From TrEMBL:
Native source species: freshwater metagenome
Limits of the ATPase AAA-type core domain: 3-57
Alphabetized GO MF terms: ATP binding; ATP hydrolysis activity
Pfam families for the chain: AAA_21 (PF13304)
Record protein name field: Unannotated protein
UniProt keyword Disulfide bond, yes or no: no
Family the entry assigns: Belongs to the ABC transporter superfamily.
UniProt entry keywords in alphabetical sequence: Transport
């Protein structure tokens, strides 16, 4: 309730610039959605909205422009679409037999893709269009895939990639 009241008070003078620190902190999912819609609406009407948050998934939804900081240094500043355009799509792959993951990685690397295994899942860089080729090659090698999910990096993954801090 305090969070909503603070935001309401900040909006009373109809500001041209709004600076918020963790505006969704402590809110339930409905409250988060309301604040998200409010901030997006204000930005669409011309208000400059600065949001400081460690919830990168929230920032990804509401931001047009982003400044990423790490230890006081600017890692990236620019349109969020520009940030994502520089990132590689990837696939998450699981196999019926966990021992086959190494074989899947070898197939990917053999086709010129970067790949690694993390927490029992193969992460393979490459466009979604290559998924069919990977599936076919895995089948031909007798490997049963139980998951083959093309993905685009999200803001959190992108942050870790850019800062060199792999999860």
């Amino acid at each position: 309730m305090k969070q909503r009241l603070g935001i309401a008070a900040a909006l009373l003078p109809d500001p041209k610039i709004l600076i918020l620190d963790e505006p969704t902190n402590g809110l339930d999912p409905e409250g988060i959605q309301e604040i998200r819609d409010l901030l997006r609406g204000l930005a669409d009407k011309g208000t400059t909205v600065f949001v400081s948050s460690h919830l990168l998934s929230e920032l990804e939804i509401i931001s047009d422009y982003i400044v990423m900081l790490r230890k006081g240094e600017v890692v990236f500043a620019g349109p969020i679409q520009e940030l994502f355009a520089a990132q590689q799509p990837f696939m998450l792959v699981r196999t019926e037999n966990s021992g086959d993951l190494e074989k899947v990685v070898a197939i990917a690397v053999g086709d010129g893709h970067k790949a690694h295994i993390q927490s029992g899942v193969a992460h393979i860089e490459g466009p979604a269009e290559w998924a069919g080729t990977l599936n076919k090659k895995a089948f031909e090698a007798g490997i049963v895939l139980t998951q083959l999910s093309p993905q685009m990096p999200n803001l959190e993954e992108t942050f870790f990639e850019m800062t060199g801090d792999k999860k």
